[in-house]
Every structure is written in structure tokens, then in C-alpha cells.
Queue: 2 jobs
Job 1
Amino acid sequence: MSQPIYASINTNSRLKMDRSSHRNQTGSDSMKTRCSRAAPMCLVLLCFLLLTAVIVLSVFIYTNNKNCAKDRRQLVTNISNLTGAKDELTNLLMERDQLIKQLQIFGQEAVWFYYQSSFYYLSNETKSWTESRRCCKDRGADLIIVNNKQEQDFIMKITGNNEFWIGLTDSDEEGNWKWVDGSILTSGFWASSGSITEPNGRETENCAVTHLKKHPELKGWLDVACDDAHQWICEKSILPVTI
């Protein structure tokens, strides 16, 4: 009776072992399957991260190169501007030296003044407007062009109560006043007092003087006949002329 019992026990033990082995084998196969599926996913994720890093790095390099190119262009522009400014300053200094030599030559016959990058020559004799301008040109200058109120005040101060020709005329067209450089007068400092307003529109009065001694109440420009005899003011700028 005991022998079948042992056989039954052994049989049951083998069944349990077989089931356990089958479960272990099944678990191992499942794990292998999961691992085989996870590997491609990890590879894809790694490739995605690598691609992202490459894109970010490329954008950074492109932006950095673009900024560097912009900085280089700006640097070249700044260097060019500095070179141009240096050349302009050199030319101004040369023109100044030349003009000072001219002033030393002509300084004994009249008075010269310096103001706002220009030299001014006040004659000590009287001539017509045309002859006065010719005298200015002989000295490498021209009749004065008054550009602003500061210059007008300066001229009124150095001329005192005497009248001086300025480089303003409407000889070409009545009422169309132009400076000697061809520019049109847009605003000026014409004299006015009570009922007197300059220019008065007389066709025979086509040139301008600073003011007249016989009209001390008039502080500003007056139009007079170009053949009248007055002193004159020449102007020579040390700034280069831009066209």
C-alpha cells in the first residue's frame, strides 16, 4: 500500500516542478519580448534627442555667425567713417594754413576777423557792388553770405554804424534775391521801422548793404543801387564746399 503513495507523491512533485519551469520559461520569454520591443524605442528616442541637439547647435552657430558678420560690417563702416573724418580734418588743417598765409599777406591793408569757421575781410575803401565782389575774388573769397542770426549779429557788431556790401542781389530777376553762390534767399534780416520796410521794391535798387548811416533807426539790410559806393565784407570759409 505504501509504494503507490510514494509514486503518487513523486508524480505530483514532478508536475509541480514542470509547472514552475513552464512559468519561469514563459516569464523569461515575456521579458525577452519586452526588451526586444524597448530597444528600438530607445534607439528612436536617442536619435530624436541627437537630432534636436544638432538643430539647436546649428541654429546657435548660424545666429552667432550672423551676429559676427553684422559686427564685422559695422566695424568696417566705423573704420571707414573714421578714415573719412581724418582725411577731412587733414584737408581742413591744410586749408587753414593756406588761408592764414593769405591773411598774413593781405592783413596789412585791412582788418580780418575769424568767426565760426570763416574769415571776414572788411575793406577800408568804397566801391560799387560789382567791383567789391571782384576785389573779394582776387583774395580767394567772395562777398559775405549771412547764414543765421548769430552771424548777422556778429556782422552788425564789427561794422558799427558803417554800411557794407553783402553778397545779396536781385539783379537777375526783380524781387528774386539770391546769394553770390546762387542759393535763393529764404529768410533774411531786412530792416524795417514804422512805414519803412526793406526791400522796398524799387527796380533800381538791386543790391544789399548791412545798413545806412543816414538811417540809424534801421537795423538790418537795405536794398540800394548797385552802382553806389560802399565798403564791403569778404568771406572765406575754411570748411570744404559740398556739392
Note: The chain is about 50% helix and 15% strand.
Job 2
Amino acid sequence: MSFETVTLEVADPTAAARFYSDLGLGTRIGLRASDAPTSGFRGFSLSVTVSQPSGVDAFVGAALDAGATALKPATKSFWGYGGVVRAPDGAVWKIATSSKKDTGPLTREIEQLVLLLGASDVAESKRFYVEHGLTVAKSFGRKYVEFATSGPVKLALYGRRALAKDVGVPEEGSGSHRLVLGGSGAFTDPDGFAWEAASLTAAS
């Protein structure tokens, strides 16, 4: 099994495509129309890593200008510098850097894009994905797992409660995840995230 695509299901694909294009993310994620009901936390977030704090500020500022909502203002922490926004389509995005100060000219270059799935039981979900053919790249007990995947987006697992706290939203949520993962198989994981054959995953 491989992880090849990530598709966000949105109410207005045209508006969402414009938003993500403005942020330089248009080629990294797919979009397709959906009116599936959902409420509250959808159980996942997308994490963008840039090289330095000015990149975080530029990315967050561009997202807010394009219609995103601030969930956590960009601030320093013991691990670096970062902020969180909610896109107009409802997806939660964290923009961060491990650097606490600028070391060069401003750049909006994205170093890494990670899809974090909030798992009710990280160990159980890790076992599920390993059994389905993914290889673990990093693992920190029942807290965090990152898989060795190719492509523009990395896949990782984080505890659902910890993930919600990290991005500044209540843990509660129900309905559709509004997220479809594309790979070499079709199945649903223990937390209800749907996978389908990558060739069937629509992209914009």
C-alpha cells in the first residue's frame, strides 16, 4: 500500500481552488464537491513547515487575506514559531517552523506538508496501517507516528484530543471528515477516514 493523494471535500471547489492556489498549495492537494454533513472538529489537520518565522507570518497573513479564520496567532514556543488558521472550506491548517528567528531573506517556500489524522487510539491505528503495508518512519509510543511515504504530502497519526488542543479547537465533532486519502487500496481506517484507489481520487 502507498499514500499518493489527499483530497479535501468542499462545498465550493472553485472558491477552494482559488484559496489554495493563492497559498501555493494548489498542486499538493485535490478538491472535489461534497455536501456531506459535518460539524465541529473533523479529526485531522494539515501542517505546513517553512524555514523561518517571517515565512510563517507571510503564509498566515496570505491565508487570512484570502478568507481564512485565525485559530491561534503566530507565536514563539519552546519548539519554534507557528500559528493555526481555518480555511474557508473548514480544513484546519498549522503553519510552523522550528527556527525561532529569521536567518535569511523572506521566502514562502514550503519545506514539508504533513496530514495529521487524529486517532482515538494511536497504537491501534498504527497497527492497522502497518498491516496494510505502510512503513513507520518515526514513532513516539501512543502519541505520534509518522509513516515513510513518497509524494508531496506526508502522513502521520496523532492522538485526537492532543491534535485538537494543538490546533486550538474543541475535540468534539461529528459527521463526515470531508477528507479522502488515495493509495493502492480501498478501505476505511479505525477512525473512519476513507481510502480509495488513487486513480479514482479527483484532483484540482
Note: The helical segments are 13-22, 53-65, 122-131, 160-167.
